[in-house]
Write the structure tokens for this entry.
Amino acid sequence: MSRKRQATATDVARLAGVSQSAVSRAFTPGASIAEETRERVAEAARQLGYRPNAIARSLTTRRSRIIGVAASYLQNHFYPDVLEALSRGLQARGYQMLLFMPDAGRHADPQLQEVLAWRVDALILASTTLSSELADQCQAAGIPVLLFNRTSRGPSVSSVTGENERGGRLIAEFLVAGGHRRLGFLAGLENSSTSRDREKGFAGWLAENGHPPPLREVGLYQFEAASAAARRLLARPDRPDAIFCGNDHMATAVAEVARHEFGLRIPRDLSLVGFDDTGPARWPSFSLTSFSQPVQPMVDATVALVCEMIENPAAPTRHEVVRGELLVRGSARMPPEGCVSLGEQLVWRPVRDG
Amino acid sequence: MSRKRQATATDVARLAGVSQSAVSRAFTPGASIAEETRERVAEAARQLGYRPNAIARSLTTRRSRIIGVAASYLQNHFYPDVLEALSRGLQARGYQMLLFMPDAGRHADPQLQEVLAWRVDALILASTTLSSELADQCQAAGIPVLLFNRTSRGPSVSSVTGENERGGRLIAEFLVAGGHRRLGFLAGLENSSTSRDREKGFAGWLAENGHPPPLREVGLYQFEAASAAARRLLARPDRPDAIFCGNDHMATAVAEVARHEFGLRIPRDLSLVGFDDTGPARWPSFSLTSFSQPVQPMVDATVALVCEMIENPAAPTRHEVVRGELLVRGSARMPPEGCVSLGEQLVWRPVRDG
């Protein structure tokens, strides 16, 4: 197979009767150019079989228009939803997404290095945190880093999260108001900020209000590990009458075990509350009461923030928190009051004295 | 914030006491280099804060080591599983994944053009087919294209698929052997090769064996559309006693509607069979009998084929078909014979005369 000589931007400019800079702008996402010019350039490019060269463009503009995205744990419906929204959001701003999936348990630095070699304009980390060393390297290189649905214990890195702690507090209050007396908590990954913050809110509210601490098991945010944890919790003589599961993905696993292995009815024998409001949580079989992490607002905040950080890499660190709601469905006994309609959805708005 | 002068490969070579070409090989995925040399280079790079430049490397090697991947429809658990496996498989071969998600219903060409501008080494399309024009462009530019879980009607493009037609035939035989008499078929996207081929196998076997054609509805591979289609099918006076749903994602929607809106018991009142063997299909609540499309073998075949195509862009088109099994679970009435154990799994191996 022989390759024809590749047409250049100069060839296109000549045929379209425009300047070479107009050709360049026509193929730079977001660049300013008259629609009529853009169409003339596109037509000339089509005729000549010209393809713009993003690599050459990135050398000229010193902007790659690539954003590195680390994601994994796609078994949890929340993350596929996030990926789709993020991809659309970044594409709309003229960015491509270089996706990499760190292996669970393996240090992500070597893979991140390869992503950084592409001179990405920014990094969005949705499934890993950053080592201090790599955070320093990114800062030295002026590459903005944003954590999605997590915060960093060590170096201060900008982040977008849901209301993990407030969600945990509200769920504790909701379950106590619903008359539950033996509460359980199913933790996710112990070193994740989401699990820590949700537990802090849940256990914190219980302690402040004179209730015993919840029975506790660890489900690692995984279906199998959550199933095993549910077996341990439900086999106890002092079985909990309500379990706050660290996310919906684990809550569906607990529901499966409770029904199919222990013959329990939900919520008559056991109340379940999850976190995220995603995927199967909304199906009638699960109908999970869950604290929401609304994907589109979280992704919108992420795209806006990352674009700002690219424009101004020296801007101070920011932590955006996107508001959620405790959505009341059928998986947990309802308190006698405090559940109010919000559109077609029932939400928990506790009635407080004063 | 001031940036230090960026260390160069020459600085690293000098400090490590190796040639510049050794530095380059140390940072080229898959390149041959002694481990001891690689470590000396890595240490020198770390001390100097040197980051390899993949953009410069791609200009030298004329290989970007980026593969463009089009995916979407992540609501169906099959695709997140594919993405994770594909990302790991490509990373292991030293490739990065430039992911883009074509908007449903919109022509993907403009987005593909931007991906091609990155001089990707290959394109894997898991959620869209290629227009003839773009296929020609890719061929002219020597960019291998591979269709995943789909085939192309128009220009001949290499592909990796499951056994769509054979799966459809086996499911028809299985349901008839199980004593079902009014079969339904829930189609996916009408213009998708998967839906066409599965239906061809299903309806073809029925016709060849003297059975009436199945009742037919279209679920577009979407949860909501499949739910609506299920309502139409189940409200008929001649309601089917078994439905072959074009994939598991639609089958879970049908199960939800059948149970929670029509009060049907599965499989006593209605048998369901899906396709894919993915995610919730395996949960006890659904326990779907399903023809499998094994993700890891499909992805392994894809990664191997795409690497071959990159090495030899002139190689002839290939269509790899990965073998599946009809996995027998609880959602469909079983035939009196033909179900055999395969490891911990029951599969359908029809007993044939002769």
Observations:
- The longest helix of chain A spans residues 295-311.
- Chain A has three domains: 9-61, 66-162+295-321, 164-292+325-348.
- Residues 164-292+325-348 of chain A form a domain with the Rossmann fold fold (CATH 3.40.50.2300).
- The mean pLDDT of chain A is 90.
